[in-house]
Amino acid sequence: MSTRLPQRISRTIRQDVTSSAGYAIQPSAGMVKLDAMENPFRLPPALKQALGERLAEVAINRYPVNKGEVADALARHFEVPAGCRVIVGNGSDELIDILSVACDVPGATVLAPLPGFVMYEMSARLRGLKFVGVPLTPAFELDEAAMLAAIESARPALTYIAYPNNPTGNLFDERIVQKLVDAIGAQDGLVVFDEAYQPFSSRTWMPRLAAHEHVLVLRTLSKFGLAGVRMGYLAGAAALIEQVDKVSPPYNVSGLNAAATLFALEHAEVFAEQAAVLRRERERLIADLHHIAGVTAFPSEANMILVRVPDSKRTFEGMKARRVLVKHIAGLHPLLANCLRLTVGTPEENRLMIDALKASL
């Protein structure tokens, strides 16, 4: 590195960027990978071959033009209500950023409970919006009074409610959620329900979109089983989505990703069965965790389980030494002291995870 490069970086790169750590991704080669809430199942051999043949027909020499077809297919498959519309993005991360750009009116604020998905705050701050985080209760429930007070004082343009929440895995009290939706609507703000874990959840706001014009539903197909495809979608009132779509890059979804998504929807029953297996495994894991002394497992409606252990750093390192990779999240927020986040894997992966956890406490 030249002697002038640090000076050049200081002059040209934002200070909040240079001082940040960025989003960390753990190396996972050779590990039982249970740190990122991925679907652990691969496609059956016959579908692998069929997908390969489908992708071979994509005109990769041309700009992709079929993201509208993908949006329509997603709207049909996931029963988006009449009067609503869908746009797609390169994962839900990009759609969060698109919302930050679209809603960056002077003085705009983004509000979200904490701990929550880190991209809400990261996108807001990098796009120049103010971010207000409201701590959950010690039981990881919405703090009704604090949330309503923040809505009243901050008048947020965007409020994110992860449904279920990441990294805690729980669905919030519906009575409180409805109060927040009403309060934000009365102030002409927007509510975004982030339903990334919809395949594993017992509740969704999608059927209620038509009756709440200020509510948006954000989802990703990563938990559906397509984390490598990078496909997210945003649904809401057609007139609102039309405005948000104006800041979407014209070719943000590749032709290969679009073709893979359409193929997956044609074989949705395969992914539905995988999700059913993971839901059963989640309940079995929770039951097993309840029998391990020193471990507290919290309720989950996602494909992950939050656990608290006596010494999370020691347990994480012990599991890693045993080739099982989970997520150490104790440093993300004070409420997560000594917490690990365990992804639900295959039955064999879950057995290895439980064994490694017991041996590492």
Write up this protein:
- The protein is of the alpha/beta class.
- The protein folds into two domains: 5-45 and 269-360, Aspartate Aminotransferase, domain 1, CATH 3.90.1150.10; 63-266, Aspartate Aminotransferase, domain 2 (3-Layer(aba) Sandwich).
- Helix content is 42%, strand content 16%.
- It has helices spanning 5-12, 15-18, 45-56, 67-77, 91-102, 118-126, 144-154, 174-186, 222-226, 238-245, 255-266, 268-289, 312-321, 347-360, and strands at residues 32-33, 84-89, 109-114, 130-135, 158-162, 190-194, 215-220, 232-237, 296-297, 304-308, 324-325, 327-328, 339-343.
- The strands form three sheets. A seven-stranded mixed sheet has the order 2-8-7-6-5-3-4.
- Helix 6 (118-126) links the parallel strand 3 (109-114) and strand 4 (130-135).
- Helix 4 (67-77) packs parallel to helix 11 (255-266) and helix 5 packs across helix 6.
- The protein is globular and about 55 Å long.
Strand and helix layout:
Blueprint: H1 5-12, H2 15-18, E1 32-33, H3 45-56, H4 67-77, E2 84-89, H5 91-102, E3 109-114, H6 118-126, E4 130-135, H7 144-154, E5 158-162, H8 174-186, E6 190-194, E7 215-220, H9 222-226, E8 232-237, H10 238-245, H11 255-266, H12 268-289, E9 296-297, E10 304-308, H13 312-321, E11 324-325, E12 327-328, E13 339-343, H14 347-360
